[in-house]
Amino acid sequence: MKMQRILNLEGAINLRELGGYPTKDGTTIKYNKLLRSGDISNLTANSLKYLKKYGLKYVVDFRSENEQQTWSDVSSDFYRIYSDPVYPLTGNGDKLAGAINHGDYSYLGLIYQSVVLDKHGQAAYKMLFDLLLDNDQDHQSLLFHCAAGKDRTGIGALLILKALDVDNETITKDYLLTNLMYQDSKEIEKTLNDANGNQDINKMNMTKADLESITSIFNAIEHYYGSFENYLDKALGIDQAKLDKLKQLYTE
């Protein structure tokens, strides 16, 4: 199957591949293992056929119970859907995030800090990481999504990429592809899915300010947990052995 960053499937919103990103230790994230997306409640028969061939086995839905009931994911016999709502937060995250805000972080950055520091938010992403570890067979992939594929999904993606040792700038550029997808998805698809299979997001125009906004999330984690690795262990239940397994499963 052709390696593509943008999967423009009928009935899917902002569906993208996380494979191909380099890590700081010299490996690369595997293709056909990790997908991030927005709403997939309108997948067509052709899209399902593609995803079956792609090896999709796990679908993690970050949307609220009401969203899931109103716009239900399309079910199929080749994957299982896991309900994993990120909201509502319990409230402890807002208090923690505010304590490290010195006027330098955007409002959205503060919301993201709240999510990653909140006990309910952490429980949601713990389920994601547990399922990532379950996805241990070749030619099987996991898709996680929310409504737009930007915020709840964006946080999931940045936690995964950070755990796999991708640098902050690449993580930010992957996050910001959502904005570009909503502006001109056809042009972005053409740019990143070119004839040579070039998936280099460094070709996209990003700004330093955006990098600082995403970095603020990791700063909040390090402020309260000492390191991102400690956050993975204490908040998400991913100790060093599990982290090593994740890298084994998702990088090459």
TrEMBL record:
It comes from the Bacteria. It holds the Pfam family Y_phosphatase3. GO terms for molecular function: phosphoprotein phosphatase activity. SUPFAM superfamilies: (Phosphotyrosine protein) phosphatases II (SSF52799). InterPro entries: Prot-tyrosine_phosphatase-like (IPR029021), Tyr/Ser_Pase_IphP-type (IPR026893), Tyr_Pase_AS (IPR016130). Belongs to the protein-tyrosine phosphatase family. This is Protein tyrosine phosphatase.
